[in-house]
Amino acid sequence: MWRGQRRGYGTLALRWVVERASEQDAGTLLQVHRVNEDAHRLYLSEGFSPAGETETHHLMRKSLQS
């Protein structure tokens, strides 16, 4: 495990990206490798929802807040 894991760095970075997208009136779309369950849980906990799949990845989307 990378030493930075489980310290909140990913959550902070993700929130920063979502906030920048929101400032541009844009939602956020990302893909996460199917085997990366920790990242998948992080995105779900931050309000992302499933948006599709490829052979290797889950596609996830977070729309603008109303």
Give the helices and strands, then pairings.
Layout: H1 9-23, E1 28-33, H2 37-45, E2 49-53, E3 57-62
Antiparallel strand pairs: 1-3, 2-3
Offer a concise description of the structure.
By secondary structure, this protein is α+β, with helices and mostly antiparallel strands. 36% of the residues lie in helices and 26% in strands.
General description of the model:
By secondary structure, this protein is α+β, with helices and mostly antiparallel strands. It is 36% helix and 26% strand. The protein has two helices and three strands, in the order αβαββ. The protein has helices at 9-23, 37-45; strands at 28-33, 49-53, 57-62. Strands 1-3-2 form a three-stranded antiparallel sheet. A hairpin with a 3-residue loop joins strand 2 and strand 3. It starts with 8 loop residues before the first helix and ends with a strand. The model has no long low-confidence stretch (mean pLDDT 89).
